[in-house]
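Example 3.
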Amino acid sequence: MLPLFVAETDFPLAPAITATLARAVELGDTGYTPPQPGIREAFTDFAQRRFGWTVNPARIRTTCDVMMGVVELLRRVIEPGDRVITNPPVYPPFEMCVEEAGGVVDRVPLRESAAGWELDLAGIEASLAAGARAVLLCNPHNPTGTVHSREHLAALAELAERYGASVVSDEIHAPSTQPGAAFVPFVSVSDAAARVGFAVTSASKAFNLAGLKCALIVTAGDGPTAIVDGLPPEVEWRTGLFGAMAAVAAFAPESDAWLDSLLAALDENRRLLAQLLEEHLPGARYRIPDAGFLAWVDLGALGWGDDPSARILEEARVAFNPGPSFGPEGAGYVRINFGCSPEVLREAVARAGALLRA
Ligand SMILES: Cc1ncc(COP(=O)(O)O)c(C=O)c1O
């Protein structure tokens, strides 16, 4: 079975990360995470270099992972039973997190325009006007790989402020934004965004560190910073030591060359996938993503039902993610992880394509 589903990549780690972790193991440095493991400085520098984003290091906190950060923030900006807007198709745990925080999911699907996937601002405004208290944004968006535009983010911030709502922006895929696309950190987009927004991010997707447990919460305005400062200290203590060490190494300038080579490999694969789909699965619809290593592919025209991944798994022994798990908008879709070698990608799509000829 070829596994192209869980959001991990198959590439060797950045050498600075391997060296840091190996050294820690050699030393037996496996205890608690120190209060200031160096992430604030490392991320501030990374954000400036890679995104042109000036972050105040005093407004950075760490926690165990992005989804825990999201839940803890939502708990503080909503009351039990409040509605939280999500934009499906979206990373399935978003719904679980809203519920874990005591909220109710208010689904405002992305819209597909000729230019690509985008936020439905009118739909979001309608939900905010009807009382939704928060937006759980995914930027870049999983599964579509959309990097939301500056204009849309600024408009979202204005709407949120007008209706007294908060925006929690999951930016875990930002470090793997392709050079041709401009990732705009939500809290940096305007003064209004700084007043209503929280970013939650990590080195864990681009650098493949998800098991090590370290994420960052970043704010830019006094109100959101006070909320983060009011989180229980345990939220920060849950940061994994190896995750913290690996994040410092990932965000360091010496890992830039590795990150650039990752982006180059993903760029080749995202384009290769378009060719492979045309060759083996004609009728598939796919927009090349601007960030990350996940592809959102519409196989609805093939007549394989709402969940084409089931047949592909059963008969071709290739695991893609089922589209419907991202919301009803995912009927007929699969999500393909192309963070692998071109050979694995070729083999996976060819195997799925063989079902068409069978
Ligand atoms: C958009 C998004 N957010 C969060 C996560 C999970 O992050 P964490 O393991 O840090 O909770 C993923 C994992 O793929 C993701 O794609």
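The first helix runs from residue 15 to 27. The CA atoms of residues 195 and 221 lie 5 Å apart.
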